[in-house]
Design goal:
CATH architecture: 3-Layer(aba) Sandwich
Number of helices: 8
CATH class: Alpha Beta
Number of domains: 1
Radius of gyration: 16 Å
Structural class: alpha/beta
Oligomer: single chain
Strand content: 15-25%
CATH topology: Pyruvate-ferredoxin Oxidoreductase, domain 3
Strand order of the largest sheet: 2-3-1-4-5-6-7
Helix content: 25-40%
Order of helices and strands: EHEEEHEHHEHHHHE
CATH superfamily: Pyruvate-ferredoxin oxidoreductase, PFOR, domain III
Largest sheet: 7 strands, mixed
Shape: globular
Number of strands: 7
Length: about 200
């Protein structure tokens, strides 16, 4: 068994935390899991990419075109790392945009969400748009969108680890376990028939 998950976003969204949550949950289920992260000026909203490889793997980096799942905490970041997406890939996009400075000062244009999803659909098997930040905002903390995304991941796909494994890791490692457990559950209960599949 081999599962490749790429988590992408911008600094401050918790991409690294998300990847570690997934990897540690897999290890709780008795599986081999390795991660590798690449990030620029993360604290200033720079791009962040984290590879999670589960199962019979030895290299920490996902080969080009071989991501099974891409979790994009910020939608345009999925396009930035499109080289990892192939015809068997599924992409889950958080609908909340984070507008970069280049767009703010008029040097670039941020594409519409439908345009982003449409371009991804040309190379991916499935593309889902999910309101993870909106769900997290109901808890009073939009930063928890990354944990909501993990819940949605479990609801959408047959993962080799279970909800209880993630709950255990949250209790053991996260600063506000009660709120994050709620975020996980809200994501998990956001059933796939309510997702916008492109």
């Amino acid at each position: 068994m081999k599962l490749n998950i790429l988590v992408v976003g911008v600094g401050g969204q918790g991409a690294i935390t998300t990847a570690h949550l997934i990897a540690r949950s897999a290890m709780k289920a008795g599986l081999n899991a390795i991660t590798a992260e690449t990030h620029g000026m993360a604290q200033r909203g720079g791009s962040v990419e984290v590879h999670v490889r589960i199962g019979d793997v030895s290299s920490p980096l996902i080969p080009d075109g071989s991501a099974d799942i891409v979790l994009a905490l910020e939608p345009v970041e999925a396009l930035r790392y499109a080289k990892y997406i192939g015809r068997k890939s599924s992409v889950v996009l958080n609908s909340r945009k984070i507008i970069p400075p280049s767009v703010t000062i008029g040097l670039a244009k941020y594409p519409e969400l439908d345009e982003i999803a449409g371009n991804l659909k040309k190379i991916a098997k499935n593309v889902y748009i999910v309101p993870a930040s909106e769900i997290a905002a109901k808890l009073g903390d939009s930063v928890a969108a990354n944990v909501v995304m993990v819940g949605i991941l479990l609801a959408l796909f047959d993962m080799p680890f279970k909800l209880q494994h993630v709950e255990e890791v949250i209790k053991e490692t996260m600063k506000n376990p009660e709120m994050n457990l709620k975020a996980l559950k809200m994501g998990y209960e956001f059933r796939s028939n309510r997702l916008s599949e492109v």
